[in-house]
Amino acid sequence: MATNMNPPREPRRPIKAIPTYYNGQRFRSRLEAKWAAFFDLCEWKWSYEPDDLDGYIPDFKLWFRIPVLVEVKPVQWDESDDDEQLLAAARTKLIHSGFSGEAIVLGSRVITEDAQGSKHWHQRLGAIMSIDDESREVTSWHPAFGFRCALCGRRSFADDVMSWHCRVRGCYEGDHHLGEWNAEQDFRLASNEVQWNPR
User: Fold this and answer.
1) Is residue 102 situated within a structural domain?
2) pLDDT at 106
3) Can you give the pLDDT at residue 104?
4) Is 199 part of any domain?
5) Torsion over CA of 191, 145, 87 and 116, rounded to 10 degrees?
6) With 0-12 CB in 10 A as exposed, 13-18 as middle and 19+ as buried, what is 106?
7) Domain limits for position 135
8) Residue 113 CB neighbours (<10 A)
9) Domain-embedded: residue 1
């Protein structure tokens, strides 16, 4: 008699947002505050809830050479149905907002991806998408990985499939500018900055 060795995964319980102060700003959730602390650690200039688009206010805007919108969701990056629903909701909001350009969806953690059974420096920050201005079509939707740019020295991220240019300064040299950066460790450090902040 065959038995199912992998029982169905229980849906995750919704995570209650805990309003949190960080650096004089009140955030709607502790997760948003953690990402703000992470942006500061990376020396990325950011704005919180910067734009009122068509029915959508992005969580952040990163003021890089070409600005990038940021949506924060409690995604675990475990390919669960919960993650898929959260990512689909973020995509839908961005597509219908009238926004064009690049946006990144950040989750509840940064993970070091497993390459052929061994850990390496490839840090999964989130999922990056591009929306074309004229067609309103999503032209890319791929994992975003973190790296330290060997050309400008800044912590940065790139699209794992489409474009490896440094989002912060626009640097590009094939893959020669992709240096090591432990983004997972930096996210833990940033998280500690806001973990016990009062509401």
Assistant:
1) yes
2) 94
3) 93
4) no
5) -110
6) buried
7) 25-192
8) 14
9) no
